[in-house]
Design goal:
With about 325 residues, the protein is of the alpha/beta class. Helices cover about 45% and strands about 15% of the residues. β6, α7 and β7 form a beta-alpha-beta unit. α2 crosses α16. The protein starts with 14 loop residues before the first helix and ends with a helix.
Length: about 325
């Protein structure tokens, strides 16, 4: 269980001496969720650095998968912050949490939203211009050989525990992937999914499966997102595509993703100016892709990539903060 201890309010003479203590008292101990993909890893570390050095919080990062983190925030009130929540993958948990006041949105994490779907390599798309939609790709299992049995095609899923993995599994059923000569492959982790793309790309072998943007992988390896065979049906998506045990999924299009920062209701009430920061803090796909590419090329940690961003993009992040807070963060770097 994550421990939360609210800082004791300090009384002192003079407004100047009160300011740092007031920040700490309002913010207190903060637990930030990190999950198994690069962009949230960087953003969680950016938040930790800014909250600690700019607002006097005592911040820590905890790891978990999407479903368990969001469920814990709603049911237990912890961790305090989910820096990058892809809402379309978890509509029931998030909507229930918001309705009950257990979750509060601090606004968009990605200013231009996120993208999810099924992708194929550009060299396959170029060689087979007839493959435009998911159904087109599923006519050709021979182009996307399964790693354990090349007599079958493979559709690579996201890692277990991701809301998007449930959606991919349900869409695979809706498209009757088994009957069309495919198998659904569990990559084991985000690294395993990345590795499957890299391995096939370097060998110029076909690959078909789930991925998302922004990401360093799609910046390095040119991939093409397949069109769906139907428009997006939000009600049907919520009814069945996001529900693992729904027995009758229908073909559906991936929605354009709204990617927000979510906090617990309790944190929103006590965070004060730190909450103002989270409401201001957002970046676009181009910036994220640049940072993630640097992170991958340099085999950097999320903290190292966060410091790279803070050192090299002050024109972006200083707009999220007051001049006084920005100076504190700069001094810490």
């Amino acid at each position: 269980m994550f421990r939360k201890v609210l800082a004791t309010t300090c009384f002192a003479v003079g407004l100047a001496s009160l300011a740092p203590a007031a920040f700490a008292a309002e913010c207190g101990d903060v637990v930030i969720a990190n999950m198994d993909w690069q962009s949230i890893d960087v953003l969680a570390n950016i938040d930790k650095i800014i909250l600690e050095n700019g607002y006097g919080c005592s911040a820590e990062i905890t790891m978990g998968d999407t479903v368990s983190i969001m469920t814990s925030m709603v049911e237990k009130g912890e961790p305090d912050i989910a820096p990058e929540a892809w809402l379309n993958a978890l509509p029931d948990i998030v909507s229930r949490g918001v309705a009950e006041g257990k979750l509060v949105s601090a606004g968009n994490a990605l200013s231009d939203g996120g993208m999810q779907g099924w992708y194929i390599p550009k060299y396959i798309a170029d060689a087979h211009p007839d493959i435009k939609k998911v159904s087109d790709a599923l006519k050709h299992p021979e182009l996307f050989p399964a790693p354990e049995d090349n007599s079958k095609g493979a559709v690579f899923n996201g890692p277990a525990g991701w809301g998007a993995s449930t959606a991919t599994s349900q869409l695979y059923k809706a498209y009757e992937g088994d009957a069309k000569g495919f198998v659904l492959v569990d990559p084991g982790s985000a690294a395993g999914l990345d590795g499957s793309i890299a391995k096939n790309y370097e060998r110029q072998i076909g690959w078909l499966g789930y991925y998302w943007s922004p990401s360093s992988v799609l910046g390095k390896y040119l991939m093409v997102k397949l069109d769906s065979d139907t428009p997006h049906d939000a009600a049907e998506w919520k009814r069945c595509i996001t529900v693992a045990d729904c027995e009758d999924p229908k073909v559906n299009a991936w929605p354009s993703d709204k990617v927000e920062t979510l906090v617990t209701g309790e944190f929103a009430e006590r965070a004060g100016v730190a909450m103002d920061y989270l409401k201001s803090r957002r970046w676009d796909n181009a910036t994220v892709n640049e940072v993630l590419a640097w992170m991958t090329e340099n085999q950097a940690t999320g903290e190292e990539a966060a410091r790279y961003f803070l050192n090299n993009k002050p024109e972006i992040w200083t707009k999220w903060l007051s001049p006084e807070v920005a100076d504190k963060v700069k001094a810490s770097l």
